[in-house]
Amino acid sequence: MNERIVVVGAALWHEGRMLAARRSAPPELAGRWELPGGKVEPGERPEEALVRELREELGVEAEPVARIPGEWPLGRPGYVLQVWSAELLSGEPAPLEDHDALRWLGVDELDAVDWLDQDRPAVAEAARRPHP
């Protein structure tokens, strides 16, 4: 039986725009866009993982606001994506780990980047909901 691994993603909002991050690795994902985030570590709540990952990957402080309903399977067996809307509290996002570019996108611009397949439904759902 496969272990269930939760990966958290942030629909990180600031001034009415959502942050998109372009992957730099692994090679099969490089150049495509995703919601920033990462794996929940043992003993960690998903919201705590989200705050930690945004600090590590982007150098920002953020606050999870609400979980986006749904859960999306990732390419590896047992891995699932859960997404939270989050508010940027402080810092200017920079691509510190796993990314080579960042873009703030308005709701009407979300189709301007090539999202990873598993992120597309989460991005669409996040855009339909009230955001900070």
UniProtKB/TrEMBL annotation:
Signal peptide feature range: none
GO biological process: DNA repair; DNA replication
NAD listed as a keyword: no
Organism domain of life: Bacteria
UniProt key word Electron transport: no
EC number: 3.6.1.55
Residues of the Nudix hydrolase domain: 3-129
Gene3D superfamilies, per database record: Nucleoside Triphosphate Pyrophosphohydrolase
Required cofactor names: Mg(2+)
Catalytic activity: 8-oxo-dGTP + H2O = 8-oxo-dGMP + diphosphate + H(+)
Keywords: DNA damage, DNA repair, DNA replication, Hydrolase, Magnesium, Metal-binding, Mutator protein
One function term, GO molecular function aspect: 8-oxo-GDP phosphatase activity
Listed PANTHER family: 8-OXO-DGTP DIPHOSPHATASE, NUDIX HYDROLASE FAMILY PROTEIN
Family: Belongs to the Nudix hydrolase family.
Protein name: 8-oxo-dGTP diphosphatase
Species this protein is from: Streptomyces mesophilus
